[in-house]
Amino acid sequence: MRIVVGLTGLLLVGAGALALCAGFGVFGPGVAGTAVLSPTVDWYIADHGWFWPLTGAVAELVALAGLVGVAGVIRSAVRRRRPGVDGATRMHARAASGDLVRDVTRAPGVQAVRARLTGTAARPRLTLSVECAPDARPGVVHTVLGGEPVTRFRDSLGMQTLLVAVRYRLAEASNPLDIPSDDDVEVALVPHARRRVLPPEDDGPAPLTDGDAG
Amino acid sequence: MGETLVDDLIEEAHARQQARRAALAEFRPRRALLLGGTGLLLALAGGGTAVQVLSTMVGTPVRIVPVRSVAHALRHAAWHDRPVMAIAGAFVAAGVLLLLALVPGRPRREPLRGTDARLAGGVSRRDLRRALTDAALEAAGVDRARVRLRDGFRRRVVVRAATRYRNPANCADLIRQAVRARLDEFDLMRPRRVDVRLSWRDD
After folding, report:
1. By the 8 A CB rule, do A195 and A186 touch?
2. How high is the pLDDT of residue A38?
């Protein structure tokens, strides 16, 4: 598609520049004053029977190139987001990604990892999103990841050409002066089984009892 | 022994180069909308022209564009007329924009160093700026700090910081060291210099 766009750009620049040159009188003052569609052009078209068939064929080719380009762009975008491999490979990948996620989560500063296999069998692609702590060292995590975990994942799938794209995200550092909300305190302190059940809104908040303190 | 070492070094340099290429290709902007839009326009324009020309040739013309009125206007417009010049200028501008769109853009993420040609890692510029800002703020005496990433021939990190002290002493050096140390922890594929611009109280 880039070639088609490049050729289109060159064609537009060339045609526009020639028209501007004609308008500014670069080709002579006589040309600047002539009509854009002069009688000479009409005579030329009338004298050559192949003109309109050739125009139609060129237009068809341009339309075809445009359609192929659009299809390529759409296919490429879809392949980057959705898996184009068979179900068995996806199941293997799901099983192997558990080990991969566990290995990467052990790296210092890593909080969460998400893995997604996309691409085709010929050009597989694994997208990893690695959530890190604010003070994490992404360089170290990347070195750890590039060692054994990725190699093991490729071996388990039998895809040595697997492209792994890793996106590191750093969590925002929380302000130590911020006062945590009641919900945050409850999540942090009260065991899940003993958390209070919120009543319907019209009844108002239920009073805390001794049992809620855990 | 010596040959092996040289081979290893060459292989490592080659692997680094491949990894750099893969990472930059992965994080470069796709410009799918522009490419797809151009393709769609070409398909519509080419298809429309082909339908009109071929249908006219077989004797059942399909009127997509009013050819007669367009031809009449072109027969009465000279090359130096303003509308013609404006349309020519628009052609040149559109062509230049399309050609510029083919120039590889700035990566959406800062790629991290690696030696695996099939592994590309990157951190977003926003996260990188935030981490470097936090590092600058940890330097003694710094009240405010703002980090910008400058690209181009001289890639660098520009830190604008302000201190409450009247005598900044080596505050700029401290900021530079802190930001440099944090930057090294990212191990970026494309190294950056650290420029610190410090302002202080002069009342």
Report:
1. yes
2. 83
Is pLDDT of A181 > 80?
no
Determine contact: B62 vs chain A, CB below 8 A.
Answer: no
Rounded to whole angstroms, how far apart are CA atoms B146 and B157? Answer: 10
ipTM: 0.76
Q: How far apart are CA A175 and CA B91, in angstroms?
A: 54
Question: Hey, is the C-beta of A170 within 8 angstroms of any chain B C-beta?
Answer: yes
Q: Report, as an integer, the average pLDDT of A66-84.
A: 87
How far is the C-alpha of B132 from the C-alpha of B193, rounded, in Å?
13
Cα–Cα distances (Å) from B1 to B5, B10, B80, in that order, read 6, 14, 75
Q: How far is the alpha carbon of B197 from chain A, nearest alpha carbon, in Å?
A: 24
Mutate to test the interface with B, among A81, A100, A123, A163 (most CBs of B within 10 A): A163
Quote the minimal CA–CA distance from B33 to chain A in Å: 9
What is the band of A29 on the pLDDT scale with cuts at 50, 70, 90?
Answer: confident
Three-state DSSP class for residue A127: strand
